[in-house]
Amino acid sequence: MKLIDLIKQIFKYKFFIVNGIRRDVEVKYKRSYLGFLWTILNPVSQILIYSIIFSHLMKSKVGGFDGEYGYAIFLCLGIIPWTFFSELLLRTTNIFIDNAHLIKKVSIPKFVFPIICLGSSLFNFFIFYFLFVIFAFIVGLNPATIILNIFIPLIFLSMMGMSVGLTFALLNVFIRDIANVVTIGLQFLFWLTPIVYNLNALPENLRGWLYFNPLSICIIASQNALVSGQSINISNFYYPGLVSLVFFIISYFLYFRLVEKLADEL
Questions:
Q1: Are the C-beta atoms of residues 228 and 62 closer than 8 Å to each other?
Q2: Which residues, in sequence order, are CB contacts of 255 under 8 Å at separation 6+?
Q3: What is the DSSP letter of 63?
Q4: CA-to-CA distance for 75 and 134, rounded, in angstroms?
Q5: 20 to 30 A from 176, CA-CA: which of 19, 89, 145, 266?
Q6: CA atoms of 56 and 43, how far apart (whole Å)
Q7: What is the pLDDT of residue 95?
């Protein structure tokens, strides 16, 4: 019953959510000459650095990504979804603290703030991914394959980012160390995800361990789909879906247990 009420309230406050996303984007780029380009400068700089440093070392170990731009394309297929997930998780973790002034003054369901965070993160993702598709088209790749094979991984990355992020966001109000733990954890998670390196570059006895990381499944699926040209198999995403469901259940019960106490703690 509570879940149905939550869904009804989402539609009730849809204009607040849409305006919140627009305000979030406008504030971020206000009085900025480069505007939304700042969103992609950090991940682009990462791609350039890793491409320059590792392109010759890793060129023979990213099978299927041949040619002059092969390693850069491989990096884009990892860094772009990773940037989306890490931004969504970090921003959601701090969302109640960042909006403490509104939560204390305005009577509105608190769960709309993570939804606004998801919307603005998706906006940034699509800008970056659109530019990548243009680059892929210029270097001779089929843009349709790249576009179609990102949506299923994106759905599961969104689910994980929201469910895990909301769990941490609720705890972060009461235990402020949570945000720092998430930041450090993401640094380790980056290197436990095949972004800079191909899974085949690892010793065979280590490859299976990376599949315990649900992000690996999402990113590897996108990379393999581009190499093979085949559509993504939804059955490969049972594990990320299960992780998302577990954290959704945790965040669901935490929300109704702690929501009334948020304003006092903030």
A1: no
A2: 110, 111, 166, 170
A3: T
A4: 16
A5: 19
A6: 20
A7: 92
Burial-class residue 56 by CB neighbours within 10 Å (0-12, 13-18, 19+). exposed
Give the closest residue to 74 by CA, choosing from 222, 257, 206, 240: 222
Q: Which residue is associated with the tokens 């290197």?
A: 191
Q: Cα(91)–Cα(265) distance, rounded to whole angstroms?
A: 19
Element housing 175 (H / E)? none
Whole-model pTM? 0.88
Q: How far apart are CA 235 and CA 223, in angstroms?
A: 16
Residue type present at position 35: G
DSSP 260: G
- Look at phi and psi of residue 11 and say left if phi exceeds 0, alpha if psi is from -120 to 50, else beta: alpha
In whole angstroms, give the CA distance from residue 43 to residue 25.
18
CA 69 to chain centre: 24
Rounded distance, CA 258 to CA 45, Å?
A: 40
Segment 22-37 mean pLDDT: 69
Burial class (CB in 10 A: 0-12, 13-18, 19+), 45: exposed
**DSSP reduced 3-state for 136:** helix
**Residue range 192-216, pLDDT digits in tens:** 998 888 877 778 788 888 889 999 9
What are 45-103's pLDDT values in tens digits?
777 777 777 666 655 456 666 666 777 888 888 888 999 999 999 999 999 998 888 88
- C-beta of residue 110 within 8 angstroms of C-beta of residue 8: no
Angle, in degrees to the nearest 10, between helices 214-228 and 151-174 = 160
Q: Tokens in use for 145?
A: 């394959």
Q: Which two three-digit tokens encode residue 149?
A: 């094979």
